[in-house]
Every structure is written in structure tokens, then in C-alpha cells.
Amino acid sequence: MTIIFFIVFANYFILILLLGWYWHKPSILTKNTNFAKADVIVACRNEAPNITSLLMALLAQKTKEIELYVVDDHSTDNTMELASTILQENGCVISSTGEGKKAALKTGAVQASNPWLIMLDADVELPENWLQNAMAVLHSTDADVVLFPISLDSKNPLAALEELDFISLMVTTAATANMGQPTMANGAALAVKRELWLDASAELNPQIASGDDVFLVHAAKRKKKKVVWAHDASLIVKTKGTCDAKALLHQRIRWGKKATKYSDVFTNYLSWSVFLFSMAYVAMGITAVFTLNFLPFLALFAVKLVVDLFVLTPAAAWLGNKKRRVDILWVSPLHPFFILTIALLGFVVRPTWKDRRI
Questions:
Q1: Tens of pLDDT, residues 126-169
Q2: pLDDT on residue 260
Q3: Is the pLDDT of residue 85 over 70?
């Protein structure tokens, strides 16, 4: 048993250090003043509090090379009316032909015509000149998928845990793309060649509510397409966290459920490495309490803390979450318990999303 635990721990720490190393070795993307042509697709449902600010930001940055599409996923509020009023002749507001985000994205992709699709969530905040900078990247890269950096701003009581967990996901997204083995993405802000998206749409597991982003990356990888991470601070998009602890748990359970459909070998390896480490870590913690022998667990915690500080501290600073660097000290020892809790709740809790039972 000791040997098994050692293998699990060694594998995990080597993996995390490797991800941290590749986070510091981003691909260099050259920007210039020439522009590609793209359609911006905002798939939304019940986003009345957010849609106005996003569309105003997009219109302020819009050029003739860009078309805007808002696809409404059967909202029960006035999202569609607000979008129509704001865009008027400067974009298109359409109703989704199906149900769920993936169907809404497909509706937009079919309607669009430009070579690139920029997909944004309705609750993101764009920095000044973000759209122009993103377009310049699309023009200069030979990639088929571009993953933009995202910073989370959470206001719920578990904000530190949520933000640091999200930062770890961003590190994984960036590092694996930089390694040439992309495993993750975040649909809040990404760009994809329209031809590739339409070709891969059948592989996005439409029966699963989430995963339009991750399954897209996996499909691109299978098709030998190039996925890159845009490591540029001017491209960092801000998004909102969940409203409370329940919403956070439901979101993470929803994210976890799609992992059962992963077919990518490296992604499954990462997922199992984190899950097995979390199980072993929690087991050692419980054993320490019952045996009153805390030394092995404290040694494990110390190593984990050092590794997490190495990886998460610079990432938190770069993504604009500097205030969370000190929170690593208490989130690090608790995070495996969080991971294991999400995994176990996934067996008994059916999450909700956008007022729908999933």
C-alpha cells in the first residue's frame, strides 16, 4: 500500500510541476495591424443583467471585419429584447433552433459566414481593445483554435476556493496547449475556425449540457488541428463566479459529469491523477486523525503547499487575482477534500443550470 501511495503522490507532483513549467513557457503569438474576418457569437439564456454591458463593449470595438450574433436559448426574461434594442442594425439577434448552449452555438455557427468564430459568454467583461487584439492574433496564427485567458471574479463565501480552483484550471488549459497536448478550454472566450466547428459539432456530445469547449478541443486534437493558448495580458477576459456555495457545487458537479465522456487519453490521465491523489490525500488525513500520527500527513501537506505556491502564485498574479496568493496557504490543504466532495456528490445530486434540471 505504501508503494501505491508513493506512486500516486510522485506522479501527481511531477505532473503539477510539469504543468507549472509549461505555464511559464507559453507559445509566442505575434500581433500585427492586419485583421482576419470573424463572427462573434454570444449564446445566452436569461442574461438580462449582463447582456447590455457586453454588447456595448463589443460595439465600441467592432470593425467592418466583424459580425455580431446573439443567439437566445429560450430566455424567460427580456434578454432578447435588450439585445435587439442595443444592436439594431449592428448585429443579429436570433432564437436557438434547439435547447441548451451547444444548440445555440450551432445555430449561430450555421448563420455565420466568416472564417473565424469568436465565442463569448454573455457575462464576460472585455478590456479596452480586446476585440482588435484578439482579431490580430487570429490573423497572425496558423492555429485552428485559440484559447483566451480568463480571470474569475467571485463574490460568494467560498470566493478564494473558487478563484484558486479556476486558476488551476487556467494553468492546465494553458500548459497542456503549450505542450501540444491540449486537454481543456473555457467557452467563456475562445475562437475557432468555423469550418472546424461545424465539422466537429456532432462530436460535442449534445446530450450533455456542458462541455462545448472541452469536447471541441478534444475533437480538434483528434483531427490533428492546432490549438494554441493566447498568453497576452491584454486578452484577459473577466467573468463572474457563482452566486453562492450551492451554485458552485452544482457547477462543479456539472463540469465533473462530462468527464465520463472523455475519450482523450491525456485528459483522462490528468483527471485520474488528480482524483487518485485527492483520495489518497484525504485517506492519509483521516488516518492521521485516528492514529494521532500526523507527521506523514504534514510532510505530504508541506510538499503540496510548496508545489502549489510555485505554480499558482505567478498564475494568480498574471491573471489579476493577486489578492488570492495568500489564500493558497489555506486553500491548498483543503482543495483535495473539495475535489473528492464534488466527485461523490456527482453520484447523488442532479445539478441545475440556467433554471433547467440537467
A1: 999 999 999 989 988 889 999 999 999 998 889 999 999 999 99
A2: 81
A3: yes
Q: In what order do the strands lie in the sheet with 145-147?
A: 92-95, 66-72, 38-44, 116-120, 189-193, 145-147, 227-229
Instruction: Place domain 27-242 in its CATH homologous superfamily.
Output: Spore Coat Polysaccharide Biosynthesis Protein SpsA; Chain A (3.90.550.10)
pLDDT of residue 355: 67
pLDDT digits (tens, 9 = 90+) for 279-311: 999 999 999 999 999 999 999 999 999 999 999
Q: What's the CA gap between 135 and 37, in Å, rounded?
A: 8
Q: Please state which of the ranges 68-82, 167-181, 344-358 shows the lowest mean pLDDT.
A: 344-358
At 203 the pLDDT is 86
Q: Which residues contact 353 (CB under 8 A, 6 or more apart)?
A: 209, 210, 250, 251, 254
Q: Alpha-carbon distance 303 to 332, whole Å?
A: 11
Residues near 217 by beta carbon (within 8 Å), at least 6 away in sequence? 145, 147, 182, 183, 184, 185, 227
What span, in angstroms and rounded, lies between the C-alpha atoms of 335 and 324? 14
The conformation of residue 236, written as its DSSP 8-state character, comes to P
**Residue with grid cell 490543504, as numbered in its chain:** 333
H helices present in the chain, as ranges: 2-23, 48-61, 79-87, 101-111, 130-140, 159-178, 194-200, 212-222, 245-257, 265-291, 295-318, 328-345
**pTM surpassing 0.90?**
yes
Q: Is 126 helix (H, G, I), strand (E, B) or coil?
A: coil
Residues 101 and 351: their CA atoms lie apart, in Å, by 16
CA atoms of 80 and 86, how far apart (whole Å): 10
Average of per-residue pLDDT across 70-84:
93
Give me the amino acid identity at 216: L
> What separation in angstroms does the CA of 327 have from each of 60, 160, 342?
37, 6, 21
Name the residue ranges covered by the structural domains of the chain: 2-22+263-357, 27-242
Residue 190 CA to its chain's centroid (Å)? 9
Encode 136-149: b = buried (16+ Cβ within 10 Å), e = exposed: bbbbebebbbbbbb
